[in-house]
Amino acid sequence: MTIAGIAGVVALVAGSIIFTSGKSKLNVDTERITISEVKKGAFQEFIPVNGVVMPLNTIFLDAVEGGQVEEKFVEDGAMLKKGDPILKLSNVDEELSLASQESAVFGEQTQMQIAHNNAQQNTVTKLNQMAEVDNAFKEAERVYLLDKKLYDQKAIGLQEYQSAKNAYDYALRRKRLTTQILKQDTALTIQQEQQAKEHYAQMKSALTLMRKKVASLTLRAPIDGQLTSLDAEVGQNKNKGEHLGQLDAQNGFKVQVDVEEHYLSRVYAGLKGDFSFADKTYKLVIKKVYTQVTSGRFKVDMQFEGEVPKGIRKGQTLQIRLALSDETTALLLPKGGFYQQTGGNWIFKVSDDGKTAYKVDIQIGRYNTDNYELLKGLKPGDKVITSSYENYGDIQELVLKK
User: Within 13 Å of residue 101, how many CA atoms lie on the same side as its CB?
Assistant: First the structure.
């Protein structure tokens, strides 16, 4: 009995070793799995994104000055030409300021004219004085030169000669002084007139700005386009800088796309994408990347490259394939549920006779919505199971049953 017991234990241990050393197998119905073939073909890494069709150029309309909506000339959705009035705001304070500024400018102009007339009269007076002084100098000079000649000839005495000389010296000093005063007065008049002109120009410039402010109370279309998002009703008060609406130019469309934050470092201007519309494929190219991230996403602006789809409308959503790489030739492994359990590290490869499938190690590179880029582990023509492995556990080999 002892020998028999020992033999039984040995047999049990040996059986356990033999059983555990073999591969665990599982019967699988081929109709419940997906078998795919590894192929060599064109591969391009891309991501699916959604884009919204928007006008190529949009101008936001804000209130330059605050006021109460007095009148609306058009309604939301109207097609406008550049300069067409949209609405009018009333602002009594600004209008009173304009009237006050206009009065000040008119008063300054009047004062300039009065000052100019006074300066001219003063100049005429100075010129008359100069003429009198110059005439007196010439007469004193004539008498002096004559008396000097007579004195040299002993025809007149020293007293008479000295009197003529003193009159001449006085007339000369008076002429010089009058000439200097006239020059200074002329320079001062020119300087005062220049200052007055500059001050008047500043006041006119301020008046021009004030008129523009009052004119801006009437909101006008800055370009040709369609008025959208108009938010104003008669009687409403609008603050300075408040958004009133926007004007969409009718010179084309762009597509604004939301992209996951994960791809921020890989998305840049020049990347291309495509989408299908009315059974035809159209191409887009990124023109601008907005690096601000909101709720884990950032935006890019894409423009049409080549033909623009007919019938496309603002606000329409497009499903776009955004390419992150150029097209290359690679070994393609169709995507499937197996990746969730294997992480792309291994896969069940179908045997040549199609009766079993066994684990093989693989290495996956890039991917898109259809395929993985297979770097090693399989070759073209190999067949693998790409459906989910959720129910396989630690099974090493699958027996395929039809």
Answer: 20
In tens, the pLDDT along 44-64 reads 888 999 999 999 888 999 998
Amino acid in position 154: K
Two domains, one topology: 47-56+252-323 and 58-91+217-247: no
pLDDT tens-digit readout, 348-386 = 999 999 999 999 999 999 888 889 999 999 999 999 999
CA dihedral 125, 127, 130, 135 (to 10 degrees): -110
What DSSP element (H or E) covers 13?
Answer: helix 2-21
Domain 23-43+328-401 class, CATH top level: mainly beta
Q: Where are the domains of the chain?
A: 23-43+328-401, 47-56+252-323, 58-91+217-247, 93-215
List helix spans (H) across 88-240.
92-152, 158-215
**Taking the model in full, what pTM does it have?**
0.55
Short-list 48, 56, 109, 97, CA closest to 250: 56
